[in-house]
Amino acid sequence: MQKRTGFARSEEVGVPDSLLMPAGGPGSNFQKQASKESTDSENWPHQATAMNDTAFGTFIEDLGKGQIVGRQVLASPVLGEIELTINLSKFGITVSINRGKNLTIRANVNNTPAPYVKLYLMDGKVCVCKAKTQPSRKTTAPVFGQAVEFQENFKHRTLQITVLGDCGRMERKLFMGIAQINLDKLSTLPQPVTSWYKLFHNSSLAPGLAPIRKDSENSLLGGQQQ
């Protein structure tokens, strides 16, 4: 896959077999989507030089390996955790979504949703590529056992993980938490890296690294379908 500087919005389609790497046996699969470049991403510099110790979350204990947050995370409750295995190589980025635990459901939601995960590979504010898991069973401790490979360079890139809940075809998708991972930080560790990542509200995002997509609280509470 060659890096593109702009993406057109499209319908979700199945990932080619060459990109699927089942971690939990037959039936594990992702849907991969084209992406849209942020309108303010032009002239946006690489963020690696701008991130300081604060962005790496040194003031918060027990973050996942390479996880980055902003100071606003101090006002955000932990919404749950997700376990990932990430392998960085010259051939690309392999992300295994293993399982989640202690996922939080809003008080006004009557039924337990079926959690699923959206992954965004970010270059500054540009989404290079993305994928999503199939929904798990309805639970707050989902087991995914799914993996995907991005055939992209990991340098100066951020991986955004958004957990959503499927409450049914006619219902809104439920935001369940977000995490950001600095891949340059992970590249200094022995590969692959397995870690639990804490999920927070959007306000936890590191300064200057806000995603182009907040398919999360703002849009979902407004009633938009994802």
From TrEMBL:
Zinc-finger in keyword set: no
Chief location of this protein within or outside the cell: other
Chain intervals for the UniProt region annotation (Disordered): 1-45
Domain C2: 78-197
One BP annotation, GO: positive regulation of synaptic transmission
InterPro entries from the UniProt entry: C2_dom, C2_domain_sf, Rim-like
Domain of life of the source: Eukaryota
Compartments (UniProt record): Synapse
GO cellular component, one term: presynaptic membrane
Gene3D superfamilies attached to this UniProt entry: C2 domain (2.60.40.150)
Entry keyword annotation includes 4Fe-4S: no
GO terms of molecular function: small GTPase binding; transmembrane transporter binding
Keywords from the UniProt entry: Synapse
Matches recorded under SMART domains: C2
Family matches, as PANTHER family: RAB3 INTERACTING MOLECULE, ISOFORM F (PTHR12157:SF21), REGULATING SYNAPTIC MEMBRANE EXOCYTOSIS PROTEIN (PTHR12157)
Protein name: C2 domain-containing protein
Annotated organism of origin: Panagrolaimus davidi
